[in-house]
Write a structure and sequence with these properties.
Radius of gyration: 40 Å
Shape: rod-shaped
Order of helices and strands: HHHEEH
Number of helices: 4
Oligomer: single chain
Largest sheet: 2 strands, antiparallel
Structural class: mainly alpha
Strand order of the largest sheet: 1-2
Length: 112
């Protein structure tokens, strides 16, 4: 019998045991994600009426700022649902602003 046979057998048994340990773990190694653990059900929705009211209100504020920038005084600007009601100070300023808007911006000078 070869010398140190018991050491060789112990090493082979240890390698086989270690291999078996890694091939067959004694605990669950698979971590389930949130969707497989039960997860959540999320439903997103848009409240269309509120979204439209917000858009109309924002457009009203932009309209008021644009008119005041052109020198047209706005006395009242009210929102009724999705409709804007606008009252200006005088009709002549509105006619002048419309005429200026129809004419377009002044031409730019060509640079040499």
């Amino acid at each position: 019998m070869p010398k140190h046979l018991w050491l060789r057998v112990a090493i082979v048994v240890a390698v086989i045991g270690g291999s078996a340990w890694y091939l067959y773990p004694f605990r669950k190694a698979i971590n389930l994600g949130l969707d497989l653990q039960g997860g959540i059900h999320l439903v997103l929705g848009v409240e269309v009426d509120k979204a439209l009211e917000n858009v109309v209100e924002r457009n009203g504020a932009d309209l008021r700022a644009s008119l005041e920038k052109k020198g047209i005084g706005v006395t009242t600007l009210s929102r009724q649902g999705t409709e804007l009601r606008l009252q200006i100070v005088n009709r002549e300023a509105w006619s002048d602003a419309l005429a200026g808007a129809m004419a377009g911006p002044p031409p730019r000078e060509a640079r040499a």
